[in-house]
Amino acid sequence: MAGPQGTQDADLSSIVVAGLPVDRGEEVLTTEALAFVAGLHRRFEPRRRELLALRRERRARIAAEGALDFLPETAAVRAGEWKVAPVPRALQDRRVEITGPTDRKMVVNALNSGARVWLADFEDASAPTWHNVVDGQINLIDAFERRIDFASDAGKSYALRPDAELATVVVRPRGWHLDEAHLLVDGEPVAGAFVDFGLYFFHNAARLLARGAEDPNSGPYFYLPKTESHLEARLWNEVFTHAQQALGVEHGTIKATVLIETITAAFEMDEILYELRDHAAGLNAGRWDYLFSIIKNLRDAGERYVLPDRNSVGMTSPFMRAYAQLLVQTCHRRGAHAIGGMAAFIPSRRDPEVNAAAMEKVTADKEREAGNGFDGSWVAHPDLVPVCRASFDAVLGDRPHQKDVLPAGEVTAAELLDIAGAGGSCTAAGLHNAVQVGVRYIEAWLRGLGAVGIFNMMEDAATAEISRSQIWQWIYNGVVLDTGAKVTPDLVRDLVATELAELRAELGDQAYEAGRWTEAAGLFEQVALADEFVDFLTLPGYALLG
């Protein structure tokens, strides 16, 4: 494969791989690939840092004003009649998408799942150890080359189905806020987003396009996480334009779906699609991170923004319904796909009652999304693929999407911010669950696992963020629970100590000591109880990953 323009003159001596060696890592961390990533860093890192500073400034304004609104300076974009560029055949029908990390077993299972799209995740469903980062890239290349078949230690065989039956791969790189400490350029860590995108695009763009004539599932496609403004989408567009030029790929070949998983992005959906209009494939309702973002941005804006138990807030809550309606309206008006949110329930093959309840909830969720105009939706488990497909088949039939559906009614800023209208309450059971999920997820994350089944739910970093940020908000606002107890740091510490004692009894001393429970509890208390709110738990957590 040809290297990027200018790599012959790149200063490779200032590129340092600081991570421990990964088996076959040299196949990914080639001189040419590292030079390409270094080029992204040198060209775009200053702007990334400016945008992160703008996030902090905007958050300060929200704290001072206690409100958000649509941007007056971009009114012309919202009023315009433009549309995004058409998407290739592989991204026309997206009625079922499955998500998951890029470990070898998941790669095979996701591609074979029957879903139309697999979100290959380097972000919230993957703990960013250097091994996971590099090994995930190796696994994707092996999948495209059909050399990923393997047998587990238990003797179970994993093999890919024929190409025509495989899901289309859409890669989610890390968000703008995360650095990759194991790759340094000019003495600075490279953004995780540049590493994940750069390595994947460099190694696979030509490979995928070469297969394009025979394989309609091939192409360099991406999901963009944690976007907070159209200016951040503009930076991604500039990265895409540069990367395509550098590798001689036709402009607009890259297609990206943006997760609307921050409250600030919800007010800039039109603008985000506009900035990416040559490369935009759609928007996704990233519901879990969206709840986290609401808490984070409005945590100190008053009681009317206090979120009740997270398990009591669903897509039928008025403010979430408004968010979904606006997303479908915006996408379909602009010719883009609207993709629904995650069904995080995990079916139980051992407990029929749990399984039946999970299937019922997922069916209701997906039928509601299909009926509300979404073109497809997410699941976290292969067993849920047929459930989601049936819901969308019933509405779509043979059509690949329903972009002709445009929900009526104008969504206002007040509706998007009507947290109080969600109803629900703050309960002792909800607080207990937040502690359990937070501690158990963080412990698994510290061991390198990013997607974890907890209480029949597939939890990732987003749901752990909701758990700890909700506790912070409840403490800050002096919330009184249904039991009459006030949420305080001491109450939370007592619950954490109780959870650790119960885990020791449940696991046994030996298994408990083999885990990272003490570190997990310490990190959870740090991000849930600190006087100053920590933007992302993965920032202090990253130093503990090793």
TrEMBL record:
Keywords: Acyltransferase, Glyoxylate bypass, Transferase, Tricarboxylic acid cycle. InterPro entries: Malate_synth_C_sf, Malate_synth_sf, Malate_synthA, Malate_synthase_CS, Malate_synthase_TIM, MS_C, MS_N, MS_N_TIM-barrel_dom. The keyword Transferase applies. It catalyses: glyoxylate + acetyl-CoA + H2O = (S)-malate + CoA + H(+). Residues 427-544 form the Malate synthase C-terminal domain. It comes from the Bacteria. Pathway: Carbohydrate metabolism; glyoxylate cycle; (S)-malate from isocitrate: step 2/2. Residues 22-75 form the Malate synthase N-terminal domain. It is an enzyme of class 2 (transferase). One of its GO terms (molecular function) is malate synthase activity. PROSITE patterns: MALATE_SYNTHASE. Residues 168-419 form the Malate synthase TIM barrel domain. Belongs to the malate synthase family. NCBIfam families: malate_syn_A. This is Malate synthase.
